[in-house]
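Our consortium's second objective concerns turning raw sequence data into structural hypotheses that experimental partners can test. To show how far this objective has progressed, the report includes one record in full. It was chosen at random from the queue rather than selected for favorable results. The single chain below, 376 residues long, was entered without modification.
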Amino acid sequence: MDNAPRSSLATMISKWRSVVPFSRMESSTQCCDSCVQPSDSSWDDHWVEDRLLEGFQTCTYSMPSSTHLPEEGYGYLIATLIRHHPPKRRKAVLHIHGWNEYFFQTHLAQFYEGLGYDFYAVDLHRYGRSLQVGELPGYMESVEDYFEELDACVEVISQDHDCVLLSGHSTGGLTAAIYASDRPKSFAGVILNAPWIDMQGSALFRALTPLIARGLSVTSPMMVLPASENHFYVQSLHESYYGEWDFNLELKKVDSQPVRPGWIRAVVNGHDRVGDGLHIDCPVLVATSAQSSDVTHWCEEAASTDLALDVERIAARVPMLGWHTTLVRIKGALHDVGLSREEVRERYFEEIRRWELAYVRSRRAQERYLKELEEI
């Protein structure tokens, strides 16, 4: 597919290198032999075995031009691209995780491979495999902060694939939506799993949050804010509590990560962009739970509703994403629809299959047919 021009693409390519992924326990806040060093070469296609998931491989993108904040100490940011295997198909999907998150959903990779796509995921800078000791977990000053590494990921994937789907969950869904809007002709479709495209909470909370965040971010953007957290969401997922999934509780915490004014400002600025109307030029599928709730004790609702976001507000904003949008609301789904109980996530996957067949596969076939007619 034709990609839109991207700024400093040559510079981005020169920064990729393959390294052993960082471990939060093994890294150091001081410059030493174990620190990731900038690469003098352009591309190193040597992928390494993933330390977290058996059968997966990783490659690390170094960003020497994106140095740490003063609060983080010496160093610069990195991002990590994950794949299940070397390219086998001409179609691929790139998945972006959400807040307090990293990629661990091996069943998601298996689903897309069964659909005919090679699977890639990215651990964005300051998250998961890319989080280095001393960094502020998940901190961003703008959604656009992620565009450099996403451009680089898409460039890597596009070398071997001519059809790319973009997938994003929660905050990653917000990032994916804005990125796809700003990168026309780059994707065959966009799949958003409970994207955080509007603020949850009461009308007063939604009105005050942007004002407070923008005010505090001027003088204290990285201060830790008191936050009321629902511990039951992560507990509903992890096998040591009430769920069925095994993931690293240091990288996806029960208590979440610290919330800071600068990060909230970045999120609400992203919400404003969605509210102003995006221009995603390919079909978009949005999937959410049928219901949100805010439980204060463990109950059935905690295992069958969205405990993080307001699905009504998400649904209201779906038409603002682009010219062709589809909304699916799934009864019994969790905030991450793909991590819901088996019968619920199977419905989610079936909705993706139906959407992909109708609006991606058929659309590409029609485009090829029209191109052939032009050539006759």
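The partners drew two points from this record. The mean pLDDT is 86. Residues 52 and 96 are 17 Å apart (CA to CA). Both points have been shared with the crystallography group to help prioritize constructs.
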